[in-house]
Amino acid sequence: MLWDKPKCIVCDKEIKADEMVYVKMRYPKRKGFTEIKAFLRNEAKFICEECFNKK
Ligand SMILES: [Zn+2]
What we know:
Largest sheet: 2 strands, antiparallel
Number of helices: 2
Radius of gyration: 12 Å
Bound molecules: zinc ion
Order of helices and strands: EHEH
Helix content: 25-40%
Number of strands: 2
């Protein structure tokens, strides 16, 4: 797992392994894949498929 117990920001449900999720994040200013992982850990917010489809 990349993240420790990620949660949906809408319903606060824990994201399960293999679950389809949507990620909300700011696009990084700097390029480079090694930085992306650290960036996601700090900046990414998840929305589960269920909540995403409700909108
Ligand atoms: Zn949700």
